[in-house]
Amino acid sequence: MRRTLLVAHRLIGLCAAVFLVVLSLTGAVIAFENELNRLINPQLLRVQARGWPLPWESIRRGVEAQETAWRVQRIYMPATDSDSTYVRLVSRSSAATREVYVDQYSGAILGRKELANQLIWKIHEFHINLGAGAGGSQLVFYASIALLCLAGSGLCLWWPRRILRFRAVPQLSRTNYDLHRTLGFWSSFAMALFAITGINLHLQTGGGLFAMMDAKAMPVDLPGHGVTADGMLQAAAAVIPGARLMRISFWGGKRPVLVQMRFPEDKTPAGRSAVTLDPKTGRVLTAVSSRTAPLLYTALVEWNREIHTGVMFGWPTQAVVSGFSFLLSILALSGAWIWINRRLAAARGRRLAAARPARAAPAA
């Protein structure tokens, strides 16, 4: 049984090694994604806080007046007074989208995301889909499953075989083997968490998250405060008091307007509490609150992402997640090295075995 498990562990590790290294290195970087983006794109992401920001409806109409071929689809409320406002636009003639940053105090468009320094955003894209769209996302999904198998099989293989002992031998290959075994055992729980939460995040993409939120939403019948952005945000705040407004989405057509919110304990970027409103009348239709929803909902849509990204306690947990993410590269590369060394040792053994009869022939 152990032999079969070992062979499976090696094969899965070899097949997934390249993908795991990519996920590891990109994950270590994007654990501090927001901080790094603010550092390299301050002209877009930072504004000078002054007085009161403009009404959201004024910002919405002002952006559409400056970008006449585009319609505002989503407005992200800034996290702080000195953060800019992120606005997603959709073409009036196609499904194309554009993302811009706006100074909420003047209404001026600071620039387009596509023209900014894309480094961190590209790293994020590689982390979630290897830069290859839906096909790459599926590969990441399979790599996450492979990581879960590696964490479980490694735990079974290493326990309880000297999991905290490095042998004082000169061979680098033996040190690498001990390093892989020891680090793998003590990080197995973290790797399993990465895998499980990553798998769940993959399932939430492509509308999966919204479907989960809709499934837990309760019907609400309130008249609202009109169809302006500010009126809808006011109505949402009244339905779920105490939650911070995070973003408002205007989908177009008959699809309800979506306002996403979050409570202080919710560290997800957009929040996992939401209110939907009729785009024609502003009437409140449904609401879901992370505080009153079932515990399983909160775990799947709120805690899951917080654990995966390490944002639950700020930079200390982000640093822990970044470190464990980088550790995955060490495990993937050291595991591949073990396999290569074993193959080389087997080849040397075959050469020695083949040479022995040749040396013994004259004596015969």
3D architecture notes:
With 364 residues, the protein is α+β, with helices and mostly antiparallel strands. The protein has 3 domains: 2-36 and 121-205 and 313-354; 44-116, no CATH class; 215-292, no CATH class. The chain is built from 12 helices and 9 strands. It has helices spanning 2-30, 33-40, 42-45, 56-66, 119-129, 133-158, 172-186, 188-204, 208-216, 229-239, 295-309, 315-360, and strands at 70-76, 85-91, 97-102, 109-112, 218-222, 244-249, 257-262, 273-277, 284-288. It has a 9-stranded antiparallel beta sheet with strand order 4-3-2-1-6-7-8-9-5, with helices on both faces. Strand 3 and strand 4 form a beta hairpin. Helix 1 packs antiparallel against helix 5 and helix 1 packs across helix 12. The chain is elongated, with a radius of gyration of 26 Å. The two termini are 44 Å apart. The model has no long low-confidence stretch (mean pLDDT 90).
Task: Provide the helix percentage.
Answer: 55-70%
Major sheet summary line? 9 strands, antiparallel
Low-confidence stretches: none
Q: Give Rg in angstroms.
A: 26 Å
Secondary-structure-based class equals alpha+beta
Count of separate DSSP helical elements: 12
Percentage of β-strand residues: 5-15%
Shape designation: elongated
Widest sheet: strand ordering: 4-3-2-1-6-7-8-9-5
The count of strands amounts to 9
What is this structure, in a nutshell?
The chain has about 375 residues and is of the alpha+beta class. The chain has three domains: about 1-35 and about 120-205 and about 315-355; about 45-115, no CATH class; about 215-290, no CATH class. About 55% of the residues lie in helices and about 15% in strands.
